[in-house]
Specification:
The complex is a heterodimer. In chain A, helix 3 packs across helix 4 and helix 3 runs parallel beside helix 5. Chain A is globular. In chain A, 41% of the residues lie in helices and 24% in strands. Chain A contains ten helices and ten strands. In chain A, the strands form two sheets. Chain A has a six-stranded mixed beta sheet with strand order 6-7-8-3-9-10, with helices on both faces. A four-stranded antiparallel beta sheet of chain A has the order 2-1-4-5, covered by helices on one side. Chain B is elongated. By secondary structure, chain B is an all-alpha fold. Chain B is built from nine helices and no strands. The chains are: A alpha/beta, B mainly alpha. Chains A and B meet through helix 2 and helix 3 of A and helix 5 of B.
Chain lengths: 250, 246
Amino acid sequence: MITVNHIWKSFNRQTVLKDISVEFEKGQTNLIIGQSGSGKTVLLKSIVGLLDIDKGEVKYDDVVYSKLNFKKKKEIRKKIGMLFQGSALFDSSTVEENVIYPLDMFTNMSYEEKRERANFCLNRVDILNANHLFPSEISGGMQKRVAIARAIALNPEYLFCDEPDSGLDPITTLRINNLIKEITDEFNTITIVNTHDMNSVMEFGEKIVFIHMGQKWWEGTNKDILHSENEKLNDFVFANHMAKRLKNVK
Amino acid sequence: MQFFYHFGKYFILLSKVFSKPEKSKIYYKQTLKELISLGINSIGIVIVISAFTGAVITLQTAYNTENPFYPRYLIGLMARDTIILEFSSTMVGLILAGKIGSSIASEIGTMRITEQIDALEIMGVNSASYLILPKIIAFVLFNPLLTMISIAVGVFGGWIAGTTTGVVSSEDFIYGIQYAFIPFYITYALIKTVFYAFIITSVSSYYGYFVRGGALEVGRSSTKAVVYSSIIILLCDVILTQLILS
């Protein structure tokens, strides 16, 4: 379980996260939703330790991760897989080299074993015959899938996805979302996804945390959203007229 | 205050860079890659610049010492000492600060803004050490070799220019480059190049590693990397010359 306890984060005297507390369970797809600039990415980066928090703590099971030094954090980070908004693939390495990289760094596998594992991960995300292409030679959707393949190469216990659907068409978005859901079930990971895609919210939000102006405004499941009376949440989720009408029909 | 801020941040980065590597084998491979990218790929430019500058130094020395009281072999001697003492170490260092410094800063800077460095950190890799240490080791090892090449090519360029234009005979030039030769000058030049290599790679990496923003900021950070590397090289030149030759 990942536990976030009363965390605060500021940049140049501007408070971006205000007293956020939340728990994320194993084998569950957890979504952090909110408008652009609400603090979603800062929250995600604070949870994974890319940003140091000002107050509060982040716990991975019983370990207070946010208070660990770099050396000790490294041990937990080896269990983390992360999909970045822009994929963050190493652009001078091929697709296969990108997936092999964590295996190279943290395992003693032979080259053949590493290739086999990389091919397994790439097949798992439906990337075929692209091993020797560079990231710039494949589409945005494929880049996301390669990034997922790299993230699962070391069998992670925690999977973080920062806006996996940004810049993708609805069909590819659905495909990526399904893939994340399947991987969560298959690897029994704690998955935390930052998104403002409503299809993702309704489709696979087993737990949803709504962030508004740096604060946790609402928490629940995708089913709860339909019945929620929270005005800010409804304004965000049912932003357009059609969605509002649907909500009223429900 | 800004100076102390950057100075402190630079040394904190260096402490991360020189921490124990995750997997030495990977670092070894990276160092070999950097040897090719920073070292071998710089041989061409060093040869071209050294040959022409050696030629110009010889011709200028010859035209400025047209006096029957000056023996002609002094042209070779002066060309040799100028090349060894200052040109091949410091001037080539400044040129390489431009070539290598901007390339390092933009490479690391681009990795920063495209979250590739964050991806490394999330995997548990010490990104500073992984990205910067191989560059420092490779260039500190290779820069003295570049300097030796530059000295040899510079002197050869001077001989070609001097003899083909007729400003100095081949015998006088060769006698001049051997006359009153102090081998320690070579050691002095090589010591300087080791410092310069460290400055170029570490300062440029610093500017790339902490870049924030987009493509424009990456461009600015490469410019800063070249400017500050060059200034520090010149400052270091003064200090090392005083320390070593005094």
